Amino acid sequence: MAESASPVANPLAEKLKISLDYDQLTNCMRCGFCLPACPTFHETGVEAESPRGRIALMKAAVDGLLTPDRAFAEQMDHCLGCRACEPACPADVKYGRLIEQARDSVEEHRHDHRWWVKVVRKAAFEGLFPHPRRMRLLGGALKLYQRTGLGQLIRSTGALKLLPAHLTEMERIMPAASGHGVIGRIGERHAAKGERIATVGLFRGCIMDILFTDTNVNTVELLTEAGFDVVIPDSQTCCGALHAHSGEQAQARQLAKRNLQAFQEAGVDWIVSNAGGCGAMLQEYDHLLHEDPQWKDNANWFAQRVVDVSRLLVERGRIPAFRFPQAGQEEVRITYQDSCHLRNVMGSYDSPRRLMRQVDGVEYVEMAEADRCCGSAGIYNLTQPEMSANILSHKMEHARGTSAGIMLTSNPGCLLQMKLGIEREGLAGQMEAVHLVDFLHQSMVRG
Amino acid sequence: MISETVKRELESVLGSGGVKDDPETRVTHSYDGTPMLQVLPDAVIYPETTAQVSGVMKVLSAHRIPLVSRGSGTNLCGGTVPVEGGVVMVMHRMNRIVEVDLQNLTATVQPGLNTKQFIVHVEGLGLFYPPDPSSMAVSTIGGNIAECSGGLRGLKYGTTKDYVLGLEAVLADGRIIRTGGKLMKDVAGYDLTKLLVGSEGTLAVITEATLKLIPPPKSKKTMLAMYRDLYGAARTVSKIIESRIIPATLEILDRQTIRVVDDFANLGLPHDMDAILLIEQDGEPEAVERDIAIIADICRGESAERIEVAATPEQALKLLTARRSAFTALARLRPTTILEDATVPRSKIADMMLEINRIAAKHGVQICTFGHAGDGNLHPTATTDARDPEEIHRVEAAFEEIFEAAISLGGTITGEHGVGLVKAPFLEWKVGEAGIDLMRGVKQAFDPLGILNPGKVFAKSARKRVVLQHG
After folding, report:
1. A198-203 and A228-231: which strand pairing?
2. Nearest-CB residue to A91 (from B31, B39, B328)
3. Is the ipTM of this complex over 0.85?
4. Residues of A with CB under 8 A from a CB of B
5. In this predicted structure, what is the pLDDT of residue A56?
6. What was the pLDDT predicted at A167?
7. Are residues B231 and B380 in the same domain?
């Protein structure tokens, strides 16, 4: 028979009792409908690696049936946070909130991070992402590293071998960095072509703006072409997603407030995101700040106005004509990997597909399990390299099955992961991973 | 916890990766889809072959340790909660389709195979396996066999028992038996195949099954009939059957169920109707057209407000998928949903609906009803909160009366969910004292030590409903 857990107070259990939403834990009725949607359950077939299992663990910790230990913490870390379980849940359990609450508690009580995870986290979360200027400096340094041959030099010394293998791999697929960012390149304000439909604020992102500056620039040009005035408020900062998903709620709230202020002052009708991970976070600022009486209303205002660039184009824009400028005569085949947060949180899965189908000169093929996480999941591919690699290798089987020449996606993390997958599978030369915005921009027939 | 000796013996059969007894694994195998039940097993094991299952049973019977075999743990009768501790055996690693025999139209599969994957696979070969429990995207064939699962197509095509031709199973002492085969006729002795189907893991561990496949229908049509009067909808069901039309699917959803299902699936279902009938007919195209026309006439005769035929197969599939979410979607109303599956003769559906609503009002509980009306199998579902013991008590009293009402209408306490733990106290109401004695005799013959899924089917004391929490 079952025995109760030891009555000795466990600090993590106490913290979980306070932070976990017990109503949500109770709302899970264990029907198991989430199991087929969960990538980690799919990989392992182990109940503890499923949303139902993880919720049972959380509830058991709160109920005193389980003393949350290291294995508990690891199980919470194993979750990709892709939230595919949420649209699958008929009972509407807010799993995303539960896993963040659990991780927040775990983070407060953990002393067992691997050294490089600790270093990277501290440096990035506190010292880097929240500071656009430092991000641009880093971008500049990266650019120097990439352009001057310093990268090759360092590689030839074997110094990179000191890093874990997956970090070395990531180094190879990194796109060319920029030290300027989108505002440095094209300025803050851009007028609509033709009659103005609305004024939108571009959320430029932190990593996005130094590694994918072109994508930000292209987003602005797509938006103005489609009839939107675009503002890029310079006082905006990182969305806080990486913080929130890694159990650093307090920092995430600080960042949210800065963004609320920035976009409210800019007087925009919509806040546009071109990265599913960031957009989903922005859209949930209302929940993030719901207990803060001073910010609650602002957060609601903000959350209701956040929209993905594809959806804004499809639902409100004057969509330009698209024709892919292919080199040869043959039609290029394209496919798409959903960004989990774009699909599962922002509910945008139809819009990207509608846009891709409107492009002349290409054939769109749906990839099997396109809605399943690619294993990138924020910094998951750095912190959980084995699980991430397994998920990616299944993903690439499906990618190969499409015989597509171009793999499109809508989030920088997914894009890098797809590049990594293509590299690992030896598909370079046959398949290329591209951000949907860049692809559309390249195909846009200017009016 | 299991002793070190037992653990070592199990590891010698299964390898070290096949045995787990850490707290996380135990907690995550302490429940199934049944509300308010949770008991931790002492260990969880993952066999990969029949020989391993046999080896495990030898170890467990030598030490008299209980065994609960399970698939995905979605059942709704507490059937896989290890109420007496012991070992939970997860069959997921035995998930192969061994063979699809295109000459005999049979499939031989392992028990851990996912039901939907199997259905999709055989459909790809131009064949049809009809049993489709609402949990089919999650459930396993082995679990379906153990519980004799039904589903939305039961009324025309029957349930799991009608498709199991043969089984391989491991007995409590580790011996392996094979029953039936790829045979459409077989009367060699007692029908052990049928006996094991629906035996809820209390007689043997199923390790392989040979299933019957049939040619798929050539066409199908799906329609919705909407009513302002719940009983009009219920009467329609009986009238359709009386008119000698057997639809492939004939489901009923009441007002509350319509709302929550629509909140989940965003289908644009009307929130102001008291009931919807979801009707599907399949077969030869002309016959389908004719039946749908007759059914529509019957619906109008019973004052259906509106009738809509699904425009595309995708739309029809969406409707059926949404219906499958009904039970869980009801948890949007209150955190705990307790559902039963009282079943009555099809002519008594309207009477049963009346009884359910009368009983709910009498006990002051909210009971939403949906279900497979066409086969008389209703799912009255109480929406409540496990944290309120007084209300739970009233819910239990209401269900006790619902069971009584079903039996007095010539029905049964469970149509497709099984007896398990939660309906064990009521089994005698249906099968009588002699019936229980006989069933106990069968159990004794298969499992003299009482180690296979103990505590299920047979209640320690009849009638009072068992509610266990945290062991």
Report:
1. parallel
2. B328
3. yes
4. 1-5, 23, 26-27, 29-33, 35-36, 45-48, 53, 56-57, 60, 63, 65-67, 69, 71-72, 75, 89-92
5. 97
6. 67
7. yes
Domain contains A3: no
Report whether A185 contacts A213 (CB < 8 A).
yes
**Are B465 and B419 in contact, with CB atoms under 8 Å apart?**
no
Distance from CA of B371 to the nearest CA of A (A): 17
Range of the domain at A328: 321-445
Domain boundary among A54, A83, A108: A108
- Residues contacting residue B152 through CB under 8 Å, at least 6 positions apart: B132, B134, B249, B251, B280, B320, B323, B324, B372
CA B121 to chain centre: 21
In a domain, B356, yes or no: yes
Range of the domain at B261: 219-408
- If DSSP states are collapsed to H, E and C, what string results for B240-283? HHHCCCCCCEEEEEEHHHHHHHHHHHCCCCCCCCCEEEEEEEEE
CATH code at B29? 3.30.43.10
Alpha-carbon gap, residue B208 to B220, rounded angstroms? 32
Q: Are A85 and A51 in contact (CB under 8 A)?
A: yes
- Return the higher-pLDDT residue of A110 and A351: A351
Q: Is A29–B85 a contact, with Cβ atoms under 8 angstroms apart?
A: no
pLDDT at B471 over 70: no
List, for residues A163-204, the tens digit of each pLDDT value. 666 667 777 777 888 888 999 999 999 999 999 999 999 999
Contact A136, A180 (CB under 8 A): yes
| Nearest partner of A6 among A67, A68, A73, judged by Cα | A67
